[in-house]
Amino acid sequence: METAFRVIGDGLSIAAMAIIASTALGAFKRIPKGVAVPMQWGFDGKATWRAPRTAGLLLIPLISIAVIFAFTLSGATFRVQGAEAMMLLCVRATLGALLAMGQLLHLRFAIKTLQDEGRL
Question: What ranges do the domains of the chain cover?
Fold first, then answer.
């Protein structure tokens, strides 16, 4: 049963990484070259700092992939059994979903900010 939980967790991690990568690629195609991507916003809703297009669109996917791989490749994934395996699957599923949602929210706000500024 633990093997099934591990395989399901791997599948959910792959699905999360695919969502993150595909949305970054879509935004890369949509944002013109030379336009800086907003990375953080202040309380007034204006971008406080920006990154170059390539770095700005790859930062979150690379961090997400590193977190997912570190969690997946940790030795704990292969040693747990019983209820711990189910809990690990739940943590991996939640982690993948949160990272994908973080990417989607960031791109939503970045594209909205660029549209409001007339850069798209």
Answer: 2-117
